[in-house]
């Protein structure tokens, strides 16, 4: 990626990298907008995000059409994709507060998510009488469950942060990942599977996890409400696609709700980052000793930032459990790899940028995480591959006798592993070539009010040269100042 | 002392209480059998030696290259698969298809039990497997360094750490792609064993326990001699202490880095092989799962300290198995992590601090 000369490729760059990995032409979408005065488009973070999402959707739709997938299938895929992107965007935004703004190397994200998700379910599940086989909850309303998840994750953040925030970055990393594992073992253990308390059966469900109520508030007020069933009937009538549009429409509702939450996260973190509080956080990121010397109680600031991020991760965990996992949870969901996926998303988008965080989440989920599987699905719809060889030996044997088909079939059959390899390689290449990600290290004005008539708050290298020295930053390769 | 460091005082009290409880249970109430405790100690020691061996490698790269290598666990896995592939090949040559053998029975072609692999039954195959595990892992570690880390020497600890996560993902799933994702049993069911008399029973020890013990101790002694008696060892210690000073003194730091990867990778590969020999099962997450315990051992002993890594490994191993006496087995690993976190808080420089790579 051409690091130094960012000019002109704000919205372009993510579209073209969308094209790279998926070998389809979504970048066609952008020349239209690129014809506009470039600066105006790139200055708007919203248009960056919307453009990124649209490019991604366009790619998915084009691939689907070319492969001849059913419209309903494409629609369902895209809604599920949006839902997952929204969850990842929340996590990436929270992590950006930790790492991008404050420089706290937290690799225990799953721990906070797990506490959020479990707390949510344990609060909202129906009350179970003692003697029943599975653990029940407290039967509290949905919103109380979410609030509980936020509080529980923040409290865990406090407990973890109190001793460990003063440690070196790599020690903090190891402490947080160990904490996340301890949390997972706690929920996995049968010791607290089911406890009788105050005449109720409570517990963590142990290895088999918890299954929440099948009828949720969303069922009652959204999916099964008259207006939504009417809408589904209307759409089914209008489009006459085989099969009802009900389930994808439900996913769409979920995705919209989650996107609104993401917007809330974005607004909150943007406000936080621009506030005096956020300025101290950035000062800590750059040089904690200096911030300290200027009379800031850096310990307190770090703790507040850490707890806020953890609380948001807990909320994301609860929403993940509710929307993505269908109101059920089990400890295997919260393996450490999920943490690293969020990290890849953040680094892809660019640490230090909220817009980059959302874009990174979209690109990560859309291209790296779900993309390969979707492409596999699409290609299999066109070409019928012969049976894949059972082992790599058969695949390579074919290659030696100049027959690439078994090898390709083998790779295709193992797309699940292949995409993780790809993800690892992308992370390595990013760290070597462009550690600041797509939009990282953007200069943000330190003042709450605009200092100059022209904005300096906007994207990275905005038209180099046009603004004098202060506007050229971020995109410079090697000059990226980097972290402590 | 106690008043200056209240946390350490609390830890000492906790340690004394646990030891007291153990002695009471063994001698006075008799609720614990010596033989049972002996068995747990043996298991903990074996696991601890493997963790310590892998920890020496991690500790060396951590102190000399200044980054926490999160792909270290997958080097353990790599050593296990390459080594066991050779062992399978030598033990089963002529009995089964060689491709199935070298892929350690991927796709269910062959099984370790049917090949009758053990140190007494197929001595040569096991020894050569051990050697290949060391060589292959060292070569892979060196190749990864040349391709990825070398151009990033000055990037700082955290970017390198993040990069190593990418290496870990890629390496782990390349292994999964090549060798398959199944869990397999590797050794013959009948391994010669004998019963060591304990006070009120016996502790069973088999030949593979002895292999782990002998190899582990021998390699650790070797590393000790290398670091203390050779010029390379001196250079390594100097570099771990202060890289700039080392370079000024004329130490060829890049060459020292090469040897660090070779030694660290080799020891890690051996650890992976021995782990499988001892556990008798193999799958592609075996090293990743062990990684945090290895980190725990290294931090416990103090980063850069070889003795510390070994000592830390044994402590972590013993914690894993002896904690079962007091808490449910589900929490064995959690207790090891708690110990690591406590050490990080109370004594972040580790127990063997101030003696880098010695």
Specify Rg of chain A, calculated over alpha carbons. 24 Å
**Global morphology of chain B:** globular
Q: Characterize the largest beta sheet of chain B: strand count, sense, and whether it forms a barrel.
A: 2 strands, antiparallel
β-sheet strand percentage of chain A: under 5%
List low-pLDDT spans of chain A.
Answer: 1-35, 455-484
Secondary-structure content class of chain B: mainly alpha
Q: Beta fraction of the residues of chain B?
A: under 5%
Span from first to last CA of chain A?
25 Å
Radius of gyration of chain B, CA atoms, in whole angstroms: 21 Å
The portion of residues assigned to helices of chain A is 55-70%
Order of helices and strands of chain A: HHHHHHHHEEEHHHHHHEHHHHHH
Helix content of chain B: 55-70%
**Strand neighbour order, sheet with most strands of chain A:** 1-2
Strand order of the largest sheet of chain B: 1-4
The profile of the biggest β sheet of chain A is: 2 strands, antiparallel
């Amino acid at each position: 990626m051409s690091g130094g000369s960012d000019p002109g490729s704000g919205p372009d760059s993510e579209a073209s990298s969308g094209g790279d990995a998926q070998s389809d032409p979504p970048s066609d979408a952008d020349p239209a907008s690129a014809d506009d005065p470039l600066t105006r488009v790139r200055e708007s973070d919203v248009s960056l995000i919307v453009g990124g999402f649209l490019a991604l959707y366009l790619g998915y739709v084009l691939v689907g059409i070319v492969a001849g997938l059913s419209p309903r299938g494409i629609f369902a895929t895209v809604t599920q994709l949006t839902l997952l992107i929204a969850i990842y965007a929340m996590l990436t935004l929270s992590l950006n507060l930790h790492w991008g703004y404050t420089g706290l190397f937290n690799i225990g994200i799953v721990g906070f998510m797990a506490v959020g998700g479990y707390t949510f379910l344990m609060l909202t599940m129906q009350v179970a009488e003692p003697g029943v086989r599975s653990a029940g909850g407290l039967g509290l309303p949905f919103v109380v469950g979410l609030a509980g998840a936020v509080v529980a994750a923040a409290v865990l953040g406090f407990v973890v942060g109190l001793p460990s925030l003063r440690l070196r970055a790599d020690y903090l990393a190891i402490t947080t990942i160990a904490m996340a594992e301890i949390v997972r073992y706690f929920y996995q253990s049968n010791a607290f599977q089911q406890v009788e308390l105050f005449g109720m059966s409570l517990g963590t469900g142990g290895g088999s996890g918890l299954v929440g109520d099948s009828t949720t508030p969303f069922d009652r007020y959204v999916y099964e409400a008259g207006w939504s069933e009417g809408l589904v009937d209307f759409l089914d009538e209008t489009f006459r696609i085989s099969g009802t549009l009900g389930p994808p429409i439900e996913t769409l509702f979920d995705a919209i709700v989650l996107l609104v939450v993401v917007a809330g996260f974005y607004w909150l973190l943007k406000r936080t980052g621009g506030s005096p509080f956020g300025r101290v956080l950035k000062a800590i990121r750059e040089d904690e000793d200096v911030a300290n010397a200027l009379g800031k109680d850096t310990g307190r600031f770090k703790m507040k930032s850490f707890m806020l991020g953890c609380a948001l991760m807990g909320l994301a965990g609860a929403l993940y459990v509710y929307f993505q996992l269908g109101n059920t949870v089990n400890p295997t969901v919260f393996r450490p790899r999920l943490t690293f996926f969020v990290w890849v998303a953040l680094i892809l988008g660019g640490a230090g940028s909220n817009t980059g965080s959302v874009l990174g989440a979209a690109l990560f989920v859309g291209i790296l995480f779900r993309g390969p599987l979707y492409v596999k699905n699409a290609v299999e719809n066109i070409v019928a591959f012969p049976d894949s060889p059972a082992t790599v030996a058969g695949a390579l044997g074919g290659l030696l006798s100049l027959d690439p088909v078994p090898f390709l079939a083998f790779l295709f059959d193992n797309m699940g592993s292949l995409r993780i390899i790809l993800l690892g390689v992308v992370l390595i290449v990013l760290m070597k070539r462009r550690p600041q990600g797509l939009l990282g290290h953007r200069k943000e004005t330190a003042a709450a009010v605009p200092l100059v008539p022209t904005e300096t708050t906007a994207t990275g290298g905005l038209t180099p040269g046009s603004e004098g020295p202060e506007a050229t930053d971020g995109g410079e390769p090697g000059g990226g100042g980097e972290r402590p | 002392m106690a008043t200056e460091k209240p946390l350490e005082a609390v830890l000492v009290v906790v340690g004394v209480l646990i030891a007291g409880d153990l002695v009471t249970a063994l001698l006075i109430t008799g609720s614990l059998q010596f033989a049972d405790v002996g068995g747990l100690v043996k298991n903990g020691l074996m696991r601890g030696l493997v963790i310590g061996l892998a920890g020496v490698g991690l500790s060396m790269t951590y102190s000399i290259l200044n980054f926490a290598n999160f792909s270290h666990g997958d080097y353990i896995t790599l050593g296990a698969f390459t080594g066991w592939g050779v062992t399978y090949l030598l033990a089963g040559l002529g009995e089964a298809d060689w491709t199935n053998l070298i892929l350690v029975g991927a796709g269910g072609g062959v099984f370790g039990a049917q090949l009758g692999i053990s140190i007494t039954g197929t001595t040569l195959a096991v020894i050569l497997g051990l050697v290949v595990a060391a060589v292959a892992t060292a070569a892979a570690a060196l190749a990864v360094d040349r391709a990825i880390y070398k151009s990033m020497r000055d990037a700082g600890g955290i970017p390198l750490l993040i990069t190593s996560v990418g290496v870990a993902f890629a390496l782990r799933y390349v292994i999964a792609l090549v060798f398959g994702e199944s869990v397999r049993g590797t050794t013959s069911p009948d391994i010669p064993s004998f019963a060591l008399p304990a006070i009120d029973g016996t502790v069973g020890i088999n030949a593979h326990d002895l292999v782990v013990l002998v190899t582990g101790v021998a390699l650790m002694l070797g590393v000790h001699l290398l670091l203390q008696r050779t010029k390379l060892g001196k250079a390594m210690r100097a570099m771990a202490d202060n890289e700039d000073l080392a370079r000024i003194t004329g130490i060829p730091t890049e060459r020292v880095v090469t040897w660090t990867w070779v030694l660290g990778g080799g020891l890690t590969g051996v650890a992976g092989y021995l782990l499988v020999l001892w556990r008798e099962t193999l799958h592609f997450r075996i090293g990743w799962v062990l990684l945090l315990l290895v980190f725990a051992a290294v931090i416990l002993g103090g980063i850069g300290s070889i003795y510390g890594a070994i000592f830390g490994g044994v402590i972590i191993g013993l914690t894993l198995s002896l904690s079962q006496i007091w808490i449910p087995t589900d929490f064995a690993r959690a207790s090891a992590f708690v110990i690591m976190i406590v050490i990080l808080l109370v004594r972040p420089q580790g127990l063997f601090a101030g003696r880098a790579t010695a």
